[in-house]
Amino acid sequence: RRGRTKLVFTTDAYIVDPIFFPGGDIGKIAMCGTINDLSVMGARPIGISLSIVLEEGFPKSDLEKIIKSIAIVSKETGVPIVTGDTKVTEKGKIDKIEITTAGVGLAENIISNNGVKPGDLIIASGDLGEHSVALLAKRFNYQTKIKSDSKAFNKEMEKVGQYLNACKDPTRGGLAANLVEMAEKSKVKIILDEKTLPYKKETIAVTELLGLDIFSLASEGRFVASVSLKNAKKVLTILKTFNK
Q1: Is the per-residue pLDDT at 142 higher than 80?
Q2: pLDDT score of 141
Q3: Residue 78 DSSP code
Q4: The overall pTM is greater than 0.70
Q5: Which of 64, 82, 167, 208 has its Cα between 20 and 30 A from that of 112?
Q6: CA atoms within 13 A on the CB side of 55
């Protein structure tokens, strides 16, 4: 910490099956996930460390595609990879490829996940659950037009972060688990109107067909936030400009 500026640090490991899916791949997920973990706390990402472990015999062409995805996200977001490493392990020791990242960011004001206030509204930055549906559809050869929602939302957070009381990215556990965590930490109850939740009809149809809990589906490029009634319309208007 220096003056009012705080150093924010995150780390994560990524394994995905399949490693390529509609709307992304493991490289895109690793970059976007790390950037989003920083952004959701109100930090401006300034650098990422990225290490790759490959299973012996991993196709060079697949590695090139993954590296290209990583480079594209870095260029689009302006967040550089400042260091990294690559290792190869014996066949059968891992499942194809694993990526580990660490990210650093700077924040003037930290956005926590325990700041929900009575009377706040819950806002999602876009349609939810599409990442899980795209991944499962690819895994089980189910035909769908849905693509993963994986993307970096640092630009969105730069615009709306000042208006948010609390924020989470609904990855593991989906909307349900993350709102429960926010409610428990904030010592409030969150009531949802199921009819207003942002799930596409096709997402609903696929989850019903596969017997999945739609509220537990992961999103890799969305955040859910608690916003005061006063600021809700402003936040929604800004977010709509990113979802045209």
Answers
A1: yes
A2: 85
A3: T
A4: yes
A5: 82
A6: 12
Helix, strand, coil percentages, rounded to 5, for the chain: 40, 25, 35
Distance from C-alpha of 159 to C-alpha of 153, rounded to nearest angstrom: 10
Contact by Cβ (8 Å): 85, 51: yes
The string of pLDDT tens digits covering residues 116-138 is 999 999 999 999 999 999 998 88
CA distance 147 to 137: 10
- Give all domains of the chain, ordered by start, each with its CATH number: 6-107 (3.30.1330.10), 121-240 (3.90.650.10)
pLDDT digits (tens, 9 = 90+) for 75-97: 999 999 999 999 999 999 999 99
- Give phi and psi for 47, each to the nearest 5: -175, 150
Neighbours of 203 (CB within 10 A): 23
Q: Put residue 92 in one of left, alpha, beta given phi > 0 → left and psi -120 to 50 → alpha.
A: left
**Residue 98 CB neighbour total at 10 angstroms:** 19
Q: Residue 56: which pLDDT band, with cuts at 50, 70 and 90?
A: very high
Structure tokens at 239: 């977010």
Ranges of H-type helices in 60-153: 60-77, 130-139
pLDDT at residue 3, as a whole number:
55
